[in-house]
Amino acid sequence: MKSLSLIIFSGILFFLLNIEAVLGFQGDENVIFLNDPLETDSVFKKEYLSAFTMVYSGLNDLRSCDIKIKGKKLKTTMVSRPTFFSMFRKKDKRKYVIVFNNDPDFDGVLLKDVPEQAREGLFAHELMHIRDYQGLKFGGLVKRGWQYMSKKGKKNLEYRIDSMTIAAGFGKELFFWSYYVLFDSKASDNYKAFKREVYCTPKDILNMLDDPGFAGIHEDDIN
User: Fold this and answer.
1) What average pLDDT score do residues 68-79 get?
2) What is the distance between the alpha carbons of residues 203 and 6, in angstroms, rounded to a whole number?
3) What pTM was estimated for this model as a whole?
4) How many CB atoms lie within 10 A of CB 152?
5) How far apart are CA 184 and CA 85, in angstroms?
6) Up-side HSE of residue 51: CA atoms within 13 Å toward CB?
7) Cα distance between residue 177 and residue 182, in whole Å
């Protein structure tokens, strides 16, 4: 019982520690409400919404989800989370937020530097996080928070999400995203090392893709 209580507490604590990333949208002109008329003026709407819509429009099960997009400082390029209080609601009543990094001093990868096809791979990955959350009850959401507490748990989860991204038909875009981060971006060595350790590498993605022709073309690039 004590162990179960610790897991639940840790999962809730994870979301509480990220509360700035999931709450406080009222009055922020940099928020996109995907199921609203998109009247809000924002950097994302102007620069990235077209590529995002290319991915989002093909995921019919997510079209009814209440998803918001906001820019703020992060330790990664993008994150997707359910809002804290909606964790306690039924699946069809939950609210989600996707936050993109707008810190000009970030030593990783910023959206503005990413080629469009690679952006689509990243967007698909983040939307798969929401698909994953949608399939979970409260206990499952807590478990996800718990997984983020360790590098091993985070790796297992991110591999699952990358696999879902490929299964959803965005494997090639995911490959270009992973390749860009590790080989073409100006991210720091530490950031690239973290990405290589926790997420699928371009080689991992090629091995998972059911497209020998695509794999054959790009295999030499990663060896």
Assistant:
1) 92
2) 37
3) 0.83
4) 10
5) 39
6) 19
7) 9
